[in-house]
Specification:
Structural class: alpha/beta
Strand order of the largest sheet: 1-2-3-4-5
Strand content: 25-35%
Order of helices and strands: EEHHEHEHEH
Radius of gyration: 13 Å
Distance between the termini: 47 Å
CATH class: Alpha Beta
Number of domains: 1
């Protein structure tokens, strides 16, 4: 089984669903393509769903994903990542690395919570 990606355009955001056998490194290598798809769709919000991913989420892959997330800075894309409880790193390494580089990203285990955060309006 290999990594499968399904992109869905919603009214206010783009959804990237990843499923099958794959790694976080394989997903993070797709960030520039996801940013381009957001640009083409004229959307600046992205929900990355990895709950159906079967594979490894190593320390190095989490760090690399955080570093590669800088590709979302160009268009100021807000990114919500949803994974299972087992997939979520208690130390949030990938999120921390990305946020330290200025990326507006959060990692969630609850899809509804991720959508709420992604769509929340920031008060000036």
């Amino acid at each position: 089984m290999s990594l499968r990606t399904k992109i869905i355009k919603r009214k206010e955001y783009l959804v990237a669903n990843f499923a099958g056998q794959g790694t976080l490194d394989e997903i993070s290598r797709q960030f520039s393509g996801l940013a381009e798809q957001c640009r083409v769709a004229k959307l600046n919000k992205l929900l990355i769903n990895i709950t159906a991913l079967k594979g490894t989420l190593t320390f190095a892959a989490r760090f690399q994903a955080g570093e590669r997330a800088v590709t979302f800075l160009t268009d100021r894309i807000k990114v919500a990542v949803v994974g299972t409880t087992e997939q979520k790193d208690p130390g949030l390494l990938g999120e921390l690395v990305a946020r330290n580089r200025g990326v507006n990203v959060r990692v969630f285990t609850d899809l509804a919570e991720a959508k709420r955060w992604l769509l929340e309006k920031v008060q000036p």
